[in-house]
Amino acid sequence: MIATAHRSLSIIGAGLAGSLLAILLSRQGWRITLYERRGDPRISDYESGRSINLALAERGRNALRQAGVEEAVMGKAVMMRGRMVHPRQGEPQLQRYGRDDSEVIWSIHRKDLNTTLLQLAEDAGAQVHFHRRLHTVDFDAGYARFIDDRNDHPHDIRFDTLIGADGAGSALRAAMNRKHPLEERIAFLDHSYKELEIPPTDDGGFRIEANALHIWPRGNYMCIALPNHEGTFTVTLFLPNEGTPSFATTNSGAEAEALFARDFPDALALIPNLRRDWEEHPPGLLGTLHLRQWHLQGRAVLIGDAAHAMVPFHGQGMNCAFEDCVALARHLLEQDSLASAFAAFEAERKPNAEAIQQMALENYLEMRDRVADPAFLLQRELEQQLQARWPTRFVPHYTMVTFLHTPYAVALERTAVQRRILEEATAGHHTLERIDWAALERVVHAQLPVLEGAH
Fold first, then answer.
1. What percentage of the chain has pLDDT greater than the value 70?
2. pLDDT in tens, 350-373
3. How confident is the model at residue 49, as a pLDDT?
4. Which domains are assigned to the chain?
5. DSSP character string of 3-55
6. For the purposes of burial, counting CB atoms within 10 Å of the CB of 410, is it exposed (0-12), middle (13-18) or buried (19 or more)?
7. Which of 128, 142, 207, 216 is the most buried (most CB within 10 A)?
8. For the whole prediction, is pTM greater than 0.90?
9. How far apart are CA 385 and CA 395, in angstroms?
10. Would you call 347 helix, strand, or coil by DSSP?
Protein backbone atom coordinates (compact mmCIF):
# COMPACT_ATOMS: atom_id res chain seq x y z
CA MET A 1 0.00 0.00 0.00
CA ILE A 2 1.19 3.50 -0.82
CA ALA A 3 2.43 5.37 2.24
CA THR A 4 1.90 9.14 1.89
CA ALA A 5 1.68 11.79 4.55
CA HIS A 6 -2.01 12.47 4.09
CA ARG A 7 -3.36 9.60 1.95
CA SER A 8 -5.56 12.20 0.30
CA LEU A 9 -6.59 12.38 -3.34
CA SER A 10 -8.59 15.06 -5.15
CA ILE A 11 -10.89 13.94 -7.97
CA ILE A 12 -11.92 16.48 -10.60
CA GLY A 13 -15.42 15.60 -11.80
CA ALA A 14 -18.24 14.04 -9.77
CA GLY A 15 -19.88 12.28 -12.69
CA LEU A 16 -20.11 8.53 -13.11
CA ALA A 17 -16.43 7.58 -13.06
CA GLY A 18 -15.46 10.15 -10.42
CA SER A 19 -18.22 9.03 -8.07
CA LEU A 20 -17.48 5.32 -8.49
CA LEU A 21 -13.75 5.86 -7.99
CA ALA A 22 -14.51 7.90 -4.85
CA ILE A 23 -16.46 4.94 -3.43
CA LEU A 24 -13.70 2.43 -4.21
CA LEU A 25 -10.88 4.59 -2.82
CA SER A 26 -12.78 5.80 0.25
CA ARG A 27 -13.29 2.17 1.21
CA GLN A 28 -9.54 1.61 0.83
CA GLY A 29 -8.88 4.30 3.41
CA TRP A 30 -8.09 7.26 1.16
CA ARG A 31 -9.40 10.74 2.07
CA ILE A 32 -11.26 11.68 -1.10
CA THR A 33 -12.45 15.13 -2.16
CA LEU A 34 -14.54 15.56 -5.31
CA TYR A 35 -14.79 18.87 -7.20
CA GLU A 36 -17.65 19.28 -9.69
CA ARG A 37 -18.22 22.30 -11.97
CA ARG A 38 -22.00 21.81 -12.08
CA GLY A 39 -24.51 22.02 -9.27
CA ASP A 40 -25.67 19.06 -7.22
CA PRO A 41 -27.77 16.91 -9.61
CA ARG A 42 -29.79 15.67 -6.63
CA ILE A 43 -31.28 19.12 -6.07
CA SER A 44 -30.84 21.03 -9.36
CA ASP A 45 -32.12 20.50 -12.88
CA TYR A 46 -29.94 17.96 -14.62
CA GLU A 47 -28.50 18.79 -18.03
CA SER A 48 -30.80 17.45 -20.72
CA GLY A 49 -30.50 17.00 -24.44
CA ARG A 50 -26.80 16.08 -24.38
CA SER A 51 -26.64 12.68 -22.72
CA ILE A 52 -27.04 9.50 -24.72
CA ASN A 53 -28.63 6.83 -22.56
CA LEU A 54 -26.24 4.43 -20.92
CA ALA A 55 -25.94 0.71 -21.65
CA LEU A 56 -24.64 -1.12 -18.60
CA ALA A 57 -22.83 -4.37 -19.46
CA GLU A 58 -21.06 -7.04 -17.40
CA ARG A 59 -17.83 -5.02 -17.18
CA GLY A 60 -19.68 -2.13 -15.61
CA ARG A 61 -21.75 -4.37 -13.35
CA ASN A 62 -18.56 -6.08 -12.18
CA ALA A 63 -17.13 -2.70 -11.17
CA LEU A 64 -20.33 -1.81 -9.31
CA ARG A 65 -20.18 -5.21 -7.61
CA GLN A 66 -16.63 -4.58 -6.43
CA ALA A 67 -17.72 -1.24 -5.01
CA GLY A 68 -20.67 -2.92 -3.27
CA VAL A 69 -23.25 -0.76 -5.06
CA GLU A 70 -24.63 -3.02 -7.80
CA GLU A 71 -27.95 -3.68 -6.06
CA ALA A 72 -28.58 0.02 -5.47
CA VAL A 73 -28.03 0.79 -9.16
CA MET A 74 -29.84 -2.12 -10.82
CA GLY A 75 -33.19 -1.17 -9.32
CA LYS A 76 -33.54 1.54 -11.98
CA ALA A 77 -32.11 -0.42 -14.92
CA VAL A 78 -34.17 -1.91 -17.76
CA MET A 79 -33.08 -5.16 -19.43
CA MET A 80 -32.39 -5.09 -23.19
CA ARG A 81 -32.31 -8.53 -24.84
CA GLY A 82 -31.07 -7.31 -28.20
CA ARG A 83 -31.50 -4.90 -31.09
CA MET A 84 -35.05 -4.42 -32.30
CA VAL A 85 -34.41 -3.50 -35.93
CA HIS A 86 -37.08 -1.35 -37.62
CA PRO A 87 -36.69 -1.68 -41.42
CA ARG A 88 -38.16 0.74 -43.94
CA GLN A 89 -40.72 -1.91 -44.87
CA GLY A 90 -41.94 -4.85 -42.84
CA GLU A 91 -42.20 -5.68 -39.17
CA PRO A 92 -39.46 -5.02 -36.57
CA GLN A 93 -37.19 -7.98 -35.89
CA LEU A 94 -35.31 -8.71 -32.65
CA GLN A 95 -31.62 -9.62 -33.04
CA ARG A 96 -30.59 -11.06 -29.68
CA TYR A 97 -27.29 -9.96 -28.13
CA GLY A 98 -26.64 -13.32 -26.50
CA ARG A 99 -27.86 -16.89 -26.25
CA ASP A 100 -30.57 -16.25 -23.64
CA ASP A 101 -31.64 -13.82 -20.90
CA SER A 102 -28.40 -14.45 -19.01
CA GLU A 103 -26.64 -12.48 -21.78
CA VAL A 104 -28.29 -9.08 -21.92
CA ILE A 105 -27.39 -5.44 -21.35
CA TRP A 106 -29.19 -2.90 -19.21
CA SER A 107 -30.41 0.59 -20.03
CA ILE A 108 -30.10 3.22 -17.33
CA HIS A 109 -30.61 6.96 -17.39
CA ARG A 110 -27.47 8.98 -16.74
CA LYS A 111 -29.11 11.13 -14.06
CA ASP A 112 -30.42 8.12 -12.13
CA LEU A 113 -27.01 6.48 -12.12
CA ASN A 114 -25.10 9.66 -11.31
CA THR A 115 -27.26 10.66 -8.37
CA THR A 116 -27.14 7.12 -6.94
CA LEU A 117 -23.34 6.86 -7.18
CA LEU A 118 -22.85 10.40 -5.87
CA GLN A 119 -24.91 9.68 -2.77
CA LEU A 120 -23.05 6.41 -2.18
CA ALA A 121 -19.72 8.26 -2.52
CA GLU A 122 -20.75 10.70 0.20
CA ASP A 123 -21.99 7.81 2.32
CA ALA A 124 -18.55 6.18 1.93
CA GLY A 125 -16.89 9.32 3.34
CA ALA A 126 -15.99 11.37 0.26
CA GLN A 127 -16.38 15.15 0.44
CA VAL A 128 -18.06 16.77 -2.56
CA HIS A 129 -17.81 20.44 -3.58
CA PHE A 130 -20.17 21.62 -6.32
CA HIS A 131 -19.85 24.71 -8.53
CA ARG A 132 -16.09 24.26 -8.66
CA ARG A 133 -14.71 24.65 -12.19
CA LEU A 134 -10.99 23.94 -12.39
CA HIS A 135 -9.26 27.11 -13.56
CA THR A 136 -5.49 26.83 -13.00
CA VAL A 137 -3.10 24.23 -11.62
CA ASP A 138 0.45 24.60 -10.34
CA PHE A 139 1.63 20.99 -10.27
CA ASP A 140 5.00 21.80 -8.72
CA ALA A 141 3.51 23.73 -5.80
CA GLY A 142 0.47 21.47 -5.40
CA TYR A 143 -1.90 24.42 -5.79
CA ALA A 144 -5.15 24.65 -7.79
CA ARG A 145 -7.76 27.36 -8.26
CA PHE A 146 -11.43 26.68 -8.90
CA ILE A 147 -14.06 29.22 -10.00
CA ASP A 148 -17.71 29.28 -8.98
CA ASP A 149 -19.39 30.31 -12.25
CA ARG A 150 -22.43 31.65 -10.43
CA ASN A 151 -20.47 34.59 -9.03
CA ASP A 152 -16.91 34.23 -10.46
CA HIS A 153 -15.66 33.65 -6.93
CA PRO A 154 -12.29 31.82 -6.74
CA HIS A 155 -11.60 28.88 -4.43
CA ASP A 156 -7.97 27.88 -3.89
CA ILE A 157 -6.82 24.49 -2.63
CA ARG A 158 -3.63 22.62 -1.85
CA PHE A 159 -3.49 19.11 -3.22
CA ASP A 160 -1.31 16.03 -3.08
CA THR A 161 -2.57 14.40 -6.28
CA LEU A 162 -5.29 15.17 -8.83
CA ILE A 163 -7.34 12.56 -10.67
CA GLY A 164 -9.15 13.75 -13.80
CA ALA A 165 -12.60 12.23 -14.19
CA ASP A 166 -13.99 15.38 -15.80
CA GLY A 167 -14.99 14.04 -19.19
CA ALA A 168 -14.04 14.59 -22.79
CA GLY A 169 -13.56 18.33 -22.29
CA SER A 170 -11.34 17.73 -19.24
CA ALA A 171 -9.97 20.91 -17.64
CA LEU A 172 -7.34 18.85 -15.82
CA ARG A 173 -6.15 17.37 -19.12
CA ALA A 174 -5.78 20.89 -20.50
CA ALA A 175 -3.71 21.89 -17.45
CA MET A 176 -1.55 18.77 -17.77
CA ASN A 177 -1.05 19.48 -21.46
CA ARG A 178 0.25 22.97 -20.66
CA LYS A 179 2.68 21.52 -18.15
CA HIS A 180 3.87 18.65 -20.33
CA PRO A 181 2.46 18.14 -23.87
CA LEU A 182 0.31 15.00 -24.04
CA GLU A 183 0.16 15.03 -27.87
CA GLU A 184 -3.61 15.30 -27.74
CA ARG A 185 -5.52 14.47 -30.90
CA ILE A 186 -9.31 14.43 -31.28
CA ALA A 187 -10.74 12.75 -34.39
CA PHE A 188 -14.28 14.06 -34.81
CA LEU A 189 -16.84 11.93 -36.61
CA ASP A 190 -18.54 13.55 -39.60
CA HIS A 191 -21.83 12.81 -37.81
CA SER A 192 -23.45 14.44 -34.76
CA TYR A 193 -26.47 13.51 -32.65
CA LYS A 194 -29.71 15.01 -31.37
CA GLU A 195 -31.63 13.69 -28.37
CA LEU A 196 -35.43 13.34 -28.26
CA GLU A 197 -37.93 11.44 -26.11
CA ILE A 198 -40.78 8.96 -26.37
CA PRO A 199 -43.11 9.60 -23.39
CA PRO A 200 -44.92 6.81 -21.50
CA THR A 201 -48.50 5.84 -22.16
CA ASP A 202 -51.25 7.51 -20.14
CA ASP A 203 -51.09 4.71 -17.59
CA GLY A 204 -47.28 4.89 -17.32
CA GLY A 205 -46.40 1.98 -19.58
CA PHE A 206 -43.99 1.66 -22.49
CA ARG A 207 -45.25 2.56 -25.97
CA ILE A 208 -43.02 -0.01 -27.71
CA GLU A 209 -41.18 -3.18 -26.63
CA ALA A 210 -39.42 -2.27 -23.38
CA ASN A 211 -36.70 -4.92 -23.28
CA ALA A 212 -34.79 -3.97 -26.43
CA LEU A 213 -32.55 -1.32 -27.93
CA HIS A 214 -34.54 -0.07 -30.90
CA ILE A 215 -32.69 0.80 -34.11
CA TRP A 216 -33.98 2.40 -37.29
CA PRO A 217 -30.98 1.85 -39.66
CA ARG A 218 -31.01 3.97 -42.80
CA GLY A 219 -27.60 3.48 -44.38
CA ASN A 220 -25.61 6.64 -43.70
CA TYR A 221 -27.70 7.62 -40.68
CA MET A 222 -29.90 6.05 -38.02
CA CYS A 223 -32.17 6.55 -35.05
CA ILE A 224 -32.03 4.57 -31.79
CA ALA A 225 -34.22 4.41 -28.67
CA LEU A 226 -33.33 3.09 -25.21
CA PRO A 227 -35.87 2.43 -22.44
CA ASN A 228 -35.94 4.16 -19.06
CA HIS A 229 -37.49 2.65 -15.95
CA GLU A 230 -40.26 5.28 -15.73
CA GLY A 231 -41.69 4.22 -19.12
CA THR A 232 -39.95 6.73 -21.38
CA PHE A 233 -37.47 6.07 -24.18
CA THR A 234 -34.45 8.25 -24.85
CA VAL A 235 -34.33 8.66 -28.63
CA THR A 236 -31.08 9.63 -30.36
CA LEU A 237 -30.87 10.58 -34.02
CA PHE A 238 -27.43 10.32 -35.65
CA LEU A 239 -27.08 12.36 -38.84
CA PRO A 240 -24.17 13.50 -41.04
CA ASN A 241 -23.06 17.08 -40.47
CA GLU A 242 -23.24 17.81 -44.23
CA GLY A 243 -25.18 16.47 -47.20
CA THR A 244 -28.80 15.33 -47.50
CA PRO A 245 -30.17 14.55 -45.03
CA SER A 246 -27.89 16.17 -42.46
CA PHE A 247 -27.85 18.68 -39.65
CA ALA A 248 -26.94 21.27 -42.28
CA THR A 249 -30.25 20.67 -44.09
CA THR A 250 -32.41 19.91 -41.03
CA ASN A 251 -32.51 23.03 -38.86
CA SER A 252 -36.06 23.68 -37.76
CA GLY A 253 -38.46 21.44 -35.90
CA ALA A 254 -40.68 21.38 -38.99
CA GLU A 255 -37.77 20.11 -41.14
CA ALA A 256 -37.02 17.44 -38.52
CA GLU A 257 -40.66 16.36 -38.54
CA ALA A 258 -40.56 16.05 -42.33
CA LEU A 259 -37.39 13.92 -42.10
CA PHE A 260 -39.03 11.60 -39.58
CA ALA A 261 -42.23 11.39 -41.62
CA ARG A 262 -40.20 10.20 -44.59
CA ASP A 263 -37.59 7.93 -42.94
CA PHE A 264 -38.91 7.02 -39.47
CA PRO A 265 -42.71 7.26 -39.69
CA ASP A 266 -43.38 4.67 -36.95
CA ALA A 267 -41.01 6.56 -34.63
CA LEU A 268 -42.56 9.95 -35.46
CA ALA A 269 -45.91 8.77 -34.16
CA LEU A 270 -44.29 8.11 -30.77
CA ILE A 271 -42.54 11.51 -30.31
CA PRO A 272 -45.19 14.19 -29.69
CA ASN A 273 -42.66 16.87 -28.69
CA LEU A 274 -40.28 16.35 -31.58
CA ARG A 275 -40.44 19.94 -32.85
CA ARG A 276 -39.85 21.45 -29.41
CA ASP A 277 -37.05 19.09 -28.42
CA TRP A 278 -35.34 19.49 -31.79
CA GLU A 279 -35.16 23.25 -31.41
CA GLU A 280 -34.20 23.20 -27.71
CA HIS A 281 -31.50 20.50 -27.82
CA PRO A 282 -28.30 21.43 -29.65
CA PRO A 283 -26.53 18.74 -31.71
CA GLY A 284 -23.83 16.84 -29.80
CA LEU A 285 -20.39 16.22 -31.28
CA LEU A 286 -18.95 12.72 -31.59
CA GLY A 287 -15.21 12.18 -31.40
CA THR A 288 -12.35 9.90 -30.39
CA LEU A 289 -9.63 11.26 -28.09
CA HIS A 290 -6.06 10.03 -28.39
CA LEU A 291 -3.25 10.91 -25.94
CA ARG A 292 0.39 9.83 -25.78
CA GLN A 293 0.20 9.55 -22.01
CA TRP A 294 -2.39 9.78 -19.25
CA HIS A 295 -0.36 10.82 -16.20
CA LEU A 296 2.24 13.27 -14.86
CA GLN A 297 4.44 11.23 -12.53
CA GLY A 298 2.58 11.03 -9.20
CA ARG A 299 0.90 14.44 -9.53
CA ALA A 300 -2.02 13.73 -11.84
CA VAL A 301 -3.72 10.96 -13.81
CA LEU A 302 -6.69 10.84 -16.19
CA ILE A 303 -9.44 8.21 -16.35
CA GLY A 304 -12.54 7.56 -18.46
CA ASP A 305 -13.50 10.05 -21.14
CA ALA A 306 -10.86 12.50 -19.92
CA ALA A 307 -8.23 9.98 -21.09
CA HIS A 308 -9.90 8.15 -23.96
CA ALA A 309 -13.29 9.55 -25.05
CA MET A 310 -14.91 7.41 -27.72
CA VAL A 311 -17.97 7.41 -29.93
CA PRO A 312 -20.97 5.77 -28.20
CA PHE A 313 -21.79 3.04 -30.71
CA HIS A 314 -20.61 0.05 -28.71
CA GLY A 315 -22.21 1.20 -25.45
CA GLN A 316 -18.84 0.75 -23.74
CA GLY A 317 -17.73 4.26 -22.77
CA MET A 318 -19.09 4.03 -19.24
CA ASN A 319 -18.20 0.35 -18.87
CA CYS A 320 -14.62 1.09 -19.93
CA ALA A 321 -14.43 4.03 -17.51
CA PHE A 322 -15.70 1.82 -14.67
CA GLU A 323 -13.01 -0.74 -15.52
CA ASP A 324 -10.51 2.14 -15.29
CA CYS A 325 -11.74 2.85 -11.76
CA VAL A 326 -11.27 -0.76 -10.64
CA ALA A 327 -7.83 -0.98 -12.26
CA LEU A 328 -6.61 2.30 -10.75
CA ALA A 329 -7.86 1.33 -7.29
CA ARG A 330 -6.07 -2.02 -7.61
CA HIS A 331 -2.77 -0.45 -8.68
CA LEU A 332 -2.98 2.04 -5.80
CA LEU A 333 -3.15 -0.98 -3.50
CA GLU A 334 -0.39 -2.97 -5.21
CA GLN A 335 2.24 -0.31 -5.97
CA ASP A 336 4.51 1.48 -3.50
CA SER A 337 4.25 4.97 -5.01
CA LEU A 338 1.68 7.08 -6.82
CA ALA A 339 3.98 7.45 -9.81
CA SER A 340 4.42 3.69 -10.20
CA ALA A 341 0.69 3.10 -9.66
CA PHE A 342 -0.23 5.60 -12.38
CA ALA A 343 2.35 4.15 -14.79
CA ALA A 344 1.11 0.59 -14.20
CA PHE A 345 -2.49 1.71 -14.59
CA GLU A 346 -1.74 3.39 -17.93
CA ALA A 347 0.28 0.41 -19.19
CA GLU A 348 -2.65 -1.91 -18.47
CA ARG A 349 -5.52 0.23 -19.66
CA LYS A 350 -4.22 2.27 -22.62
CA PRO A 351 -4.01 -0.62 -25.14
CA ASN A 352 -7.48 -1.76 -24.12
CA ALA A 353 -8.94 1.73 -24.38
CA GLU A 354 -7.48 2.11 -27.87
CA ALA A 355 -8.99 -1.23 -28.86
CA ILE A 356 -12.52 -0.35 -27.74
CA GLN A 357 -12.23 3.07 -29.37
CA GLN A 358 -11.59 1.29 -32.69
CA MET A 359 -14.37 -1.23 -32.11
CA ALA A 360 -16.85 1.55 -31.26
CA LEU A 361 -16.18 3.20 -34.62
CA GLU A 362 -16.60 -0.13 -36.41
CA ASN A 363 -19.86 -0.81 -34.58
CA TYR A 364 -21.38 2.40 -35.95
CA LEU A 365 -21.00 1.03 -39.47
CA GLU A 366 -22.58 -2.23 -38.35
CA MET A 367 -25.54 -0.55 -36.65
CA ARG A 368 -26.43 1.88 -39.43
CA ASP A 369 -25.48 -0.22 -42.50
CA ARG A 370 -25.15 -3.93 -41.80
CA VAL A 371 -27.93 -5.01 -39.41
CA ALA A 372 -30.33 -5.26 -42.35
CA ASP A 373 -27.80 -6.74 -44.83
CA PRO A 374 -28.50 -10.40 -45.85
CA ALA A 375 -24.78 -11.30 -45.98
CA PHE A 376 -24.29 -9.95 -42.45
CA LEU A 377 -27.34 -11.81 -41.18
CA LEU A 378 -26.06 -15.08 -42.70
CA GLN A 379 -22.70 -14.53 -40.97
CA ARG A 380 -24.55 -13.92 -37.68
CA GLU A 381 -26.43 -17.20 -38.17
CA LEU A 382 -23.16 -19.06 -38.78
CA GLU A 383 -21.54 -17.31 -35.82
CA GLN A 384 -24.27 -18.62 -33.52
CA GLN A 385 -23.85 -22.17 -34.81
CA LEU A 386 -20.06 -22.03 -34.42
CA GLN A 387 -20.51 -20.80 -30.86
CA ALA A 388 -22.95 -23.66 -30.15
CA ARG A 389 -20.45 -26.23 -31.48
CA TRP A 390 -17.25 -24.80 -29.96
CA PRO A 391 -18.36 -22.33 -27.26
CA THR A 392 -14.95 -21.88 -25.63
CA ARG A 393 -13.17 -21.20 -28.92
CA PHE A 394 -15.56 -19.36 -31.23
CA VAL A 395 -16.86 -16.65 -28.94
CA PRO A 396 -18.83 -13.92 -30.78
CA HIS A 397 -17.41 -10.43 -30.76
CA TYR A 398 -20.36 -9.01 -28.85
CA THR A 399 -20.10 -11.72 -26.20
CA MET A 400 -16.40 -10.99 -25.57
CA VAL A 401 -16.98 -7.25 -25.30
CA THR A 402 -20.26 -7.24 -23.43
CA PHE A 403 -20.75 -10.42 -21.38
CA LEU A 404 -17.17 -11.39 -20.47
CA HIS A 405 -14.16 -9.64 -18.97
CA THR A 406 -11.97 -10.41 -22.00
CA PRO A 407 -9.48 -7.52 -22.35
CA TYR A 408 -10.64 -5.27 -25.18
CA ALA A 409 -7.32 -5.69 -27.00
CA VAL A 410 -7.74 -9.49 -26.98
CA ALA A 411 -11.35 -9.16 -28.18
CA LEU A 412 -10.24 -6.94 -31.07
CA GLU A 413 -7.56 -9.42 -32.14
CA ARG A 414 -9.86 -12.47 -31.98
CA THR A 415 -12.70 -10.59 -33.71
CA ALA A 416 -10.50 -9.97 -36.76
CA VAL A 417 -9.74 -13.71 -37.00
CA GLN A 418 -13.38 -14.69 -36.53
CA ARG A 419 -14.66 -12.16 -39.05
CA ARG A 420 -12.31 -13.59 -41.67
CA ILE A 421 -13.52 -17.13 -40.91
CA LEU A 422 -17.17 -16.09 -41.23
CA GLU A 423 -16.65 -14.15 -44.47
CA GLU A 424 -14.70 -16.96 -46.13
CA ALA A 425 -17.14 -19.66 -45.02
CA THR A 426 -20.25 -17.81 -46.27
CA ALA A 427 -18.81 -16.37 -49.51
CA GLY A 428 -21.10 -17.34 -52.39
CA HIS A 429 -23.71 -18.88 -50.04
CA HIS A 430 -27.27 -17.75 -49.37
CA THR A 431 -27.92 -20.40 -46.69
CA LEU A 432 -25.81 -22.62 -44.42
CA GLU A 433 -26.90 -25.87 -46.14
CA ARG A 434 -23.58 -26.45 -47.97
CA ILE A 435 -21.21 -25.38 -45.19
CA ASP A 436 -18.24 -27.74 -44.78
CA TRP A 437 -18.35 -28.26 -41.02
CA ALA A 438 -15.33 -30.57 -40.88
CA ALA A 439 -13.16 -27.99 -42.63
CA LEU A 440 -14.52 -25.25 -40.35
CA GLU A 441 -13.68 -27.31 -37.28
CA ARG A 442 -10.05 -27.58 -38.39
CA VAL A 443 -9.88 -23.82 -39.03
CA VAL A 444 -11.46 -22.88 -35.69
CA HIS A 445 -9.19 -25.18 -33.68
CA ALA A 446 -6.09 -24.04 -35.55
CA GLN A 447 -6.74 -20.30 -35.33
CA LEU A 448 -8.70 -19.79 -32.10
CA PRO A 449 -7.29 -21.04 -28.79
CA VAL A 450 -9.65 -21.61 -25.87
CA LEU A 451 -10.74 -18.24 -24.44
CA GLU A 452 -10.54 -17.75 -20.68
CA GLY A 453 -13.97 -17.24 -19.16
CA ALA A 454 -15.92 -18.60 -22.14
CA HIS A 455 -18.44 -21.35 -21.48
1. 96
2. 999 999 999 999 888 776 666 668
3. 47
4. 8-46+56-69+110-186+287-362 (3.50.50.60), 373-447 (no CATH)
5. --SS-EEEEE--SHHHHHHHHHHHTTT-EEEEE-SS--TTTSPPP-SS-PPEE
6. middle
7. 216
8. yes
9. 11
10. helix
